[in-house]
Amino acid sequence: MAHDKKSKKKDAEAVESAVAPSLSSDAATVGDAATAPKKTPAKRAPKASAKVEAEKAEQANAVEAGAFAPEAIEPAPKAPRRKAPAKASTATSTRSAATPEAAPGSSEATASAVLSPAGETDLTQTAAAPTAAVPLTAESADVPADLPALDDASPAVVHATTSQGSDPELVLPTVPAEILEQIASGTHSGPHSVLGQHPVEAPGVTDPVVVIRALRPLADTVTAVLSTGARIELGHIGSGVWQGTSILGFQDYEIEASYPDGTVWSVDDPYRYLPTIGEVDLYLFGEGRHERLWTVMGAHTREHFGVNAPAAGTSFTVWAPHARAVRVLGDFNGWNGVLHSMRRLDVTGIWELFVPGLTAGTSYKFEILTAAGHWIEKADPMAQYTEIPPATASVVGETDYVWGDTAWLSARAAHDPHNQPMSVYELHLGSWRPGLGYRELADQLVDYIHETGYTHVEFMPLAEHPFGGSWGYQVSGYYAPTSRFGHPDDLRFLIDRLHQARIGVLMDWVPAHFPKDDFALARFDGQPLYEHSDPRRGEQMDWGTLVFDFGESHVRNFLVANALYWLEEFHIDGLRVDAVASMLYLDYSRKAGEWIPNKLGGRENLEAISFLQEVNATAYKLYPGIVMIAEESTSWGGVTHPTSVNGLGFGLKWNMGWMNDSLRYMQEDPMYRSYHQGELTFSFIYAFSESFLLPISHDEVVHGKGSLIGKMPGDHWQKLANVRAFLSYQWGHPGKKLLFMGQEFGQPSEWSEERGLDWWILDQPLHRGLLTMVSQLNRVYRDNAALWEQDNEASGFSWIDGSDSANNVVSFLRWDRAGNPIAVISNFGGSTLSSYRVGLPHAGVWDELFNSDAVEYGGSGAGNLGVVTAEEHGHQGQPASVELTIPPLGVLFLRPRA
Question: What is the top-level taxon of the source organism (predicted)?
């Protein structure tokens, strides 16, 4: 990839050879054509002196050592170069034989300039410059405390012609040589305090005087071209830094540099701009309470005001508190960031740079100088778009998507999702139908979900991840939808289409841990930052991943804002939080001596508990109608209880106990199931202790576990009958429903992310029948409130009989709030039960609402011809009863006729 190909040039010739090709008409292939560097003819500078040639050789050696980059990789300009007015008068100080270069720090090293004559442009109003243009003190500047402040530097004397024609001595601050070297090498933490334009006290000069400095290694001449057209020639003061003065006050300008081959580069100066992040944002981040962090951090295209007019470009902001310096490198500067060093803004460690002319689609990374003195490259933690893996660079993104789901969002906010039907189709985008992008999926997936009747889809993690085999559960880009399937706006399109079809969208979210990949979050600024510094808390040994430091306020802010980002920017209707148990317990999957207790001496992760409470409370407050779901596999109490009573605040919890017990029961041969009836009925004991979702997820059909149909006993017909009975029982059981893709039609093989589903199996009538049954089951479920309205309340359930283990029968009633029942009668035996009496709450006609053994579903057709009549004959504790034919491996739903 481009960023992997950058290299240091071996000699001066190699450096200069990098200049010329990049100035050709093919320059647009490096970056966006609109921002490609200008190639303008220029008069060849006089032949340099031997001293200058020696200095160039030294600079070439510095390039090889990584001190600075060749000029060929300066950022591209965004506007045509302006011609100077005819009356403008300039003088030149160049590194040429005609003007030998003085030693850094001498009076000659400070450039002199004959400024524009009086009457050309009256811009004295610009003396009231923005606050950032005021001379910076050691306290306000981003200069390390152990370096001398510029204002205290020894003065250098130059002469300038004033607008009145007088010739006073102009005193300028001298930049110490060590600071110039830091600027050139990119190791200065406050380059804006040196580069750019700064006011100068000039006794006797009534016009506002500014000094302009720019870093241009290997240039022969450097000129500041003001927006007025005036040209200010800069002189070289050492280490590739150039300086000149102007009495035209603060101006918008570009830096124009000429090179020995006659080419000229003219670009807007990033170092003349104020910070793009404000004091309020800095304060909120410092407090760890910035709920819209993604709007501030990362890379953002924007218009940023200069002095006289705004400029379009891209702002970069990153948190790296342990860094000594940070640079931006990307395809816009040849993956060498020496000309794009960032400034440290505050004590929290935020670094910032605005690069004018940079557009969306630009690939970039941050280059961080660690405390140990090593440069490391990192992807942007807040990037909203990335290169396609295995490439690892971030990409400047922007969105102009116009949503069409207003009606959906309004309806969502008006209803409590916990008291609404929820049957979830879980899928892995890459293997559902391989080769489809977000937009292609928008057509095929919407049609399929509409056909099968699910109320929601749940996407396995969509955030960017380097390794496809992790299924998305080892995230490298928390704010970037994976680019494997297209642009982030393409994902917006997919979700929008689902919403317009009245299908909810859930997404797996992984705040528990992250991978150790060098380019991502691990040791982000050379030290543990996002992860806990103690490996007994900071590493998850089972998965080979790192654990977030939930007690660090900025890390918590990163994660809380990330949850809100998906809800806000992509209209996600809920997040399923992965691996909650690993967050709650400090000794999770650890042996004695591998963990440290909390401050109270216990094994509970108090910081993680607080984080989960915060993210849930904040999400529910800001986005009414969403649902937060916990994948929590232990008996931790209060997972779905409100935070006001010290619960974790989730809306739903995966019922892993139900899943394990019921699947274990179903794997028994019907001949022996009578000995295991308790495994099927145990879940009803605790069914209302939490708000549950019943999952048959991807975890149950991988790693040698086989597919759902593969778990069932018997021949092929019996296996499918068992699947039909099991899913029907699941849909009748209290709790929301989830089924992983492929199981709805009896996928015979175990799932793998490397291949698609066995869609061909739908050509077989029995498998097509199973899909038809699931589709009908979803519609029966959705249309009957008794099956979902009181999922979380004991009043929504009552037993008919759960103890008939001899016949492998389980029967119960579900109730809606209006008191209307549905009877669910399940026969998990292998024989038809004829004249089987079942108690019912009242006599009268009951419709056979659903029969899993119907012929159209691939069943035997045993049943009750669609209707039965209950008698006032008390049975099983009910005032009425009816004799039924219950099919083998079958489930019936009965509903009283109105």
Answer: Bacteria
| Domains held by the chain: number | 3
Say if residue 446's pLDDT is above 60: yes
What are the phi and psi torsion angles at 94 (to 5°)? -120, 165
Residue ranges making up the domain that contains 261: 40-53+78-272
Q: pLDDT tens across 708-731, in order?
A: 999 999 999 999 999 999 999 999
What's the pLDDT at 170? 64
**Beta-carbon count within 10 A of 806 CB:** 9
Q: What is the DSSP letter of 856?
A: G
Please give the Cα distance from 467 to 486 (Å, whole number).
Answer: 17
Alpha-carbon separation of residue 838 from 156, 188, 202, 865 (angstroms) = 103, 82, 101, 17
Residues 880 and 768 in one domain: yes
453 CB-side CA count, 13 A: 17
Look at residues 272, 307, 339 and tell me which one is the last residue of a structural domain.
Answer: 272
302 inside domain: no
Residue 583: CB partners within 8 Å, gap ≥ 6? Answer: 511, 512, 550, 605, 608, 611, 612
Does residue 575 share a domain with residue 683? no
758 and 824 co-located in one domain: yes
Would 423 be classed as within a structural domain? yes
Chain-centroid distance, C-alpha 885: 55
629 and 759 co-located in one domain: no
At 837-879, the pLDDT tens digits run 999 999 999 999 999 999 999 999 999 999 999 999 999 999 9
3-state helix, strand, coil in the chain (%, to 5): 30, 25, 45
Do residues 666 and 687 touch, judged by C-beta distance below 8 A? no
Question: Is 578 annotated as catalytic?
Answer: yes
CATH number at residue 484: 3.20.20.80
What are the structure tokens assigned to 387, written together?
A: 């290169």
Q: What is the pLDDT of residues 821-835, one digit of tens each?
A: 999 999 999 999 999
Looking at the fold, whether 193 and 45 belong to one and the same domain comes out as yes
Tell me, yes or no, whether 179 lies in a domain: yes
Model pLDDT for residues 397-408, shown as the tens digit of each residue: 999 999 999 999
Active-site residue among 142, 233, 531, 578?
Answer: 578
Q: pLDDT (tens digit, 9 = 90+) per residue, 151-161?
A: 333 333 333 33
For the domain that residue 180 is a member of, what is the CATH number? 2.60.40.10
Dihedrals φ, ψ of 61, to 5°? -65, -35
- Per DSSP bridges, beta strands 241-246 and 231-238 are antiparallel
Residue 66 in this model has a pLDDT that exceeds 50: no
Specify whether the CB–CB gap between 518 and 374 falls below 8 A: no
Rounded CA gap, 419 and 614, in Å?
23
One domain, residues 531 and 432? yes
306 domain-assigned: no
At which of 625, 654, 683 does a domain end? 654
Are 739 and 806 part of one and the same domain?
Answer: yes
Torsion, CA 1, CA 38, CA 327, CA 521, rounded to 10: -40
Mean pLDDT of 352-379: 98
